[in-house]
Write a structure and sequence with these properties.
The protein is mostly helical. It is built from 22 helices and no strands. It has helices at 3-19, 24-41, 50-69, 76-89, 92-104, 110-126, 129-146, 151-162, 172-181, 185-191, 193-213, 231-237, 239-253, 259-276, 282-316, 318-329, 333-348, 353-370, 375-389, 397-405, 412-435, 438-441.
Length: 444
């Protein structure tokens, strides 16, 4: 079989299986293994001989899987996942919301502002958008609904705020991107800081505009008695959060820690803080370990399958063929990036973030690299597009997570309606990042 035809058929089969909600690891892995077997068993001009192709196929599967698992930087993934669960159990990731809830509740949209800002602090510790949406959704959405907030604003703010975990370091999506593109994890983390802050301020601006246009969406609340807890004391109470932020963001940004070292130090620090606060016990630690193992195994299985798929794509030579065709047309960078953005926006409506990454990077990265674009900047653009996909119907994962933890009378349609307003600012930030790459690269 012609290798190009085989690659097209395999990519189509993988996409169809993903749309059918087949687990990503099985989908990509099976398609890649079958594709490799056919590539070696059915060379152009020969008859199909599965026995001939079995040995090289098994060899590639074994060496690729081992080469991936033995990659040292991967050790940061389980540690950052565990950090998120331990920090949440210790109350570190919710302290910021509690303080802002007391201090800002009297402002129009104050609870929503506290929720989104709390999500940013949560994201800076956990690196997971879904974990952030699930945890903050259980706390913030019922609180806003109880005080008469529009259900669309309440759910949309937390769903959108949860996406900040995709950009604000330590983002697990950045880790996966770095492994597949062989880019520096530290540089990707640093490049995500300003775009993450821009996204945060964009969401806050959305809340202010919403409350200005429709004051009834966020009733003014009486300020709580804060005489017993001064602003200075509230600020001091956030020292565990500031410590972890310093380790993860400042420590990595200024080169004091490698990302792996920062993950280890911050996990140990969060554990000790939780034990000292008497909020962590054996049960909490055991539950965090179980969930960490489950999530790590899922991510590793997906990534190993994707590595095998990328090897298969490379052997078919479809990428150089496509690049030659594109270079023959000689499109401008604007057209190429426009097509890539459109591709990710469309696929983001149907697939989850990890599935999109592993399916598209073998094709888009060589194209971008051949046109001289910076892969760090491109990584920020891709992660921002994946962030948008988390709240885009019909498969916006954060919206479904919020629906699952929100009060039962809130419909999925109301959640997506709330997300729509925040999507508008997301596209503004995306446009700024595309037009001004310096926003992503100035801290490097």
């Amino acid at each position: 079989m012609d290798p190009i035809t085989l690659a097209i058929l395999a990519s189509g089969a993988a996409f169809i299986l993903l749309v059918m909600r087949v687990p990503i690891a099985f989908c990509i892995g099976i398609v890649a293994c079958v594709g490799l077997l056919l590539r070696f068993s059915w060379a152009p001009g020969t008859e199909l001989d599965l026995v001939r192709g079995l040995r090289p196929t098994l060899s590639i599967i074994g060496t690729t899987a081992y080469g991936f698992v033995s990659n040292y930087p991967l050790s940061m993934i389980p540690m950052f996942i565990a950090l998120g669960h331990v920090a949440f159990a210790a109350g570190i990731t919710t302290d910021l919301f509690d303080v802002l809830n007391r201090r800002l509740r009297f402002l129009p949209g104050g609870l929503a502002v506290a929720s989104v800002t709390g999500c940013s602090g949560f994201s800076a510790i956990t690196g997971s958008s879904v974990a952030c949406a699930a945890a903050m959704g259980r706390i913030a959405v019922p609180e806003m609904v109880r005080h008469g907030y529009d259900k669309r604003l309440a759910t949309g703010a937390v769903a959108a705020g949860g996406t900040l975990g995709s950009l604000i370091p330590p983002s697990l999506l950045f880790v996966i991107y770095s492994i597949f593109t062989e880019q520096s994890v530290r540089e990707l983390f640093v490049a995500g800081i300003i775009p993450g802050i821009l996204s945060l301020f964009g969401f806050l601006l959305t809340i202010f505009i919403w409350c200005w246009l429709k004051p009834s969406a966020a009733p003014r609340l009486a300020q709580q008695d804060t005489a017993k807890t001064s602003a200075a004391r509230d600020l001091i109470s956030l020292w565990p959060l500031f410590l972890l932020l310093a380790i993860v963001i400042a420590g990595i940004g200024f080169g004091f820690f490698t990302p792996t070292e920062a993950a280890a130090v911050s996990l140990m620090s969060a554990t000790l803080i939780g034990l000292a606060r008497k909020k962590l016990d054996w049960r909490n630690l055991t539950d965090a370990a179980k969930i960490t193992v489950q999530q790590t195994a899922m991510i590793f299985a997906v990534a190993m399958a994707a590595k095998i798929f990328a090897t298969f794509v490379s052997l078919t030579r479809i990428v150089p063929t496509v690049l030659d065709l594109i270079q023959g047309v000689d499109p401008s960078i604007f057209i190429v990036m426009g097509a890539i953005v459109l591709l990710y926006l469309v696929i983001g409506m149907f697939l989850d973030s990890i599935g999109i990454l592993v399916l598209t990077l073998p094709f888009t990265v060589p194209l971008v690299e051949s046109m001289g674009m910076d892969l760090i900047w491109f990584g920020v653009i891709v992660i921002k597009l994946l962030e948008i996909g988390l709240i885009t119907p019909p498969i916006g994962l954060n919206a479904f997570v919020i629906k699952s933890v929100a009060p039962k009378d809130i419909s999925l349609g109301a959640v997506f309606q709330g997300c729509a307003a925040f999507l508008a600012l997301d596209f503004v930030v995306l446009g700024l990042l595309l037009a001004f790459p310096v926003l992503s690269l100035m801290l490097l």
